[in-house]
Amino acid sequence: xxxxxxxxxxxxxxxxxxxxxxxxxxxxxxxxxxxxxxxxxxxxxxxxxxxxxxxxxxxxxxxxxxxxxxxxxxxxxxxxxxxxxxxxxxxxxxxxxxxxxxxxxxxxxxxxxxxxxxxxxxxxxxxxxxxxxxxxxxxxxxxxxxxxxxxxxxxxxxxxxxxxxxxxxxxxxxxxxxxxxxxxxxxxxxxxxxxxxxxxx
Length: 201
Ligand code: 5GP
Known about the structure:
By secondary structure, this protein is an alpha/beta fold. The protein has helices at residues 22-32, 62-70, 89-97, 108-117, 131-141, 146-160, 175-190, 193-196, and strands at 11-15, 36-38, 41-43, 57-59, 74-80, 83-88, 101-105, 122-127, 168-171. It has a domain at 11-39 and 100-200: Rossmann fold. It binds guanosine-5'-monophosphate.
């Protein structure tokens, strides 16, 4: 193996109910680990206050989204509380080839598609501690109507029922601990013999 050999990156799928704190945890871990790329999804939902195009999401129309589906440009996609969400394949594959670890923040239907297509993807499920805390977080966020919050709560129960397809669970009742645990998981996965063997050759 040549000295310049750089192994491909690893794919991490992070799911958990909306309001579990995935964006916060992912934002912090991306800052702390210098080899991690966050995959920016496309969505048809409206931007929330403070969200930036191309940073949080690519905000696109229904017809633009359906064109991405037709052209086979999405690694996975799903409809979630009335909107489309999907992961553009090209940046994910490019970053993995360049040796970056890639983190997806996606709901469980999309996660199942990724695990099917990429059996080596590592699933991490983030839960906020309790459903009551989740409801409070969604209310505090004050970006969703009471009806939308109820839909997200219903969806949270559905998502939690699919937790067994994930390799790891993080309970996010303290964000610093959740970030430490996510970093520990990523680090341990990178230290596996199968990942490191090439260094000894
Ligand atoms: P939010 O509207 O709160 O940003 O996201 C709603 C849900 O959609 C969250 O559970 C989030 O993880 C999920 N999501 C975000 N991007 C994607 C994506 O590209 N694909 C799928 N399947 N779900 C996504």
